[in-house]
């Protein structure tokens, strides 16, 4: 199988302007990080998506975000986007899309590079829940990742590569996923 064609070429995440990675992310891994195992049904993600597609939860959590990445070997990982710091020993707060501050404290989110410990990725992006009224699909994926994709069109997965990832999710979760730019 040609992984370059299926998911894109491997690339490292971009570094900050000073040549380093974000210090608050180095050495951190999201607690919700999960590997999609071919042939096994991921009930956690399935339950989450089905719950979030109900009107009351969809409206309340529309901005919640799941991030995903495909590593060099073609393995798919995902996590809920989490804050860097723990609020207590049992809970890592899940971040909301574009959330920058809580009560004046800057939110430091764990991004795509933390899913692979800053190693190479083939494709990265976000998973968004489809609105309850959309009966054709349960979730969408895109190829948005600031450090793996932003600023260089050659780093962004193609629609075909994104659909290949969507197909992996569909197979593992038992729901309908669709690629969306």
What does this protein structure show overall?
The structure is a single chain. This protein has 181 residues and is an alpha+beta fold. It has one domain. The chain has helices spanning 3-7, 43-52, 55-61, 159-173, and strands at 34-36, 66-71, 76-80, 82-83, 101-102, 105-106, 109-110, 121-129, 139-141, 177-179. The strands form 3 sheets. Strands 1-3-2-8-9-10 form a 6-stranded mixed sheet. α4 links the parallel β9 (139-141) and β10. The longest helix has 15 residues, at 159-173. It is globular, with a radius of gyration of 16 Å. The two termini are 25 Å apart. Residues 87-91 have low confidence and may be disordered.
Task: Break the fold down into its secondary structure elements and pairings.
Elements: H1 3-7, E1 34-36, H2 43-52, H3 55-61, E2 66-71, E3 76-80, E4 82-83, E5 101-102, E6 105-106, E7 109-110, E8 121-129, E9 139-141, H4 159-173, E10 177-179
Parallel strand pairs: 9-10
Antiparallel strand pairs: 1-3, 2-3, 2-8, 4-7, 5-6, 8-9
């Amino acid at each position: 199988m040609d992984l370059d064609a299926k998911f894109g070429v491997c690339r490292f995440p971009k570094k900050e302007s000073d040549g380093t990675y974000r210090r608050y992310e180095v050495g951190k891994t999201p607690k919700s990080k999960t590997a999609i195992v071919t042939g096994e049904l991921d009930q956690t993600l399935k339950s989450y998506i089905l719950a979030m597609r109900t009107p009351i939860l969809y409206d309340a959590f529309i901005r919640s975000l799941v991030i995903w990445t495909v590593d060099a070997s073609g393995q798919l990982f995902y996590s809920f986007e989490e804050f860097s710091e723990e609020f207590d020993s049992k809970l890592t707060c899940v971040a909301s899309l574009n959330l920058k501050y809580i009560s004046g404290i800057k939110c430091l989110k764990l991004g795509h590079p933390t899913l692979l410990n800053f190693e190479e990725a083939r494709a990265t992006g976000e998973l968004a829940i489809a609105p309850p009224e959309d009966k054709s699909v349960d979730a969408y994926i895109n190829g948005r990742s600031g450090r793996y994709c932003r600023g260089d069109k050659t780093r962004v997965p193609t629609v075909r590569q994104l659909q290949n990832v969507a197909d992996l999710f569909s197979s593992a979760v038992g729901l309908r996923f669709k690629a969306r730019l």
